[in-house]
Write a structure and sequence with these properties.
- The chain is mainly alpha-helical.
- Helix 2 crosses helix 3.
Length: 64
C-alpha cells in the first residue's frame, strides 16, 4: 500500500491545493452542522490528509 500512495501523493496534494469540488462540498456539509464560532474548543481531525477540515475549524476559532 505505501508504494501505491507514494505514486499519487503529490498529485492528491496539488488537487486539494488547487481546489476540489468534491472535497469542498464534503467540508461545507460538515461545517454546516458545526457552530460558526468554535473559540475555546479543541478539535482533532483524524485521517486529515491535507487538513482541509482542520484548517476550516481553526478558522472558526478551534485549537488542536
Amino acid at each position: 500500500m505505501p508504494d501505491s500512495w507514494d505514486t499519487i501523493a503529490d498529485w492528491y496534494a496539488e488537487l486539494l491545493r488547487a481546489g476540489s469540488a468534491m472535497h469542498d462540498f464534503n467540508r461545507d456539509v460538515l461545517l454546516h452542522h458545526l457552530p460558526e464560532e468554535l473559540g475555546g474548543n479543541r478539535a482533532l481531525d483524524l485521517g486529515c490528509g491535507e487538513g482541509i477540515i482542520a484548517r476550516a475549524v481553526a478558522a472558526r476559532g478551534a485549537s488542536g
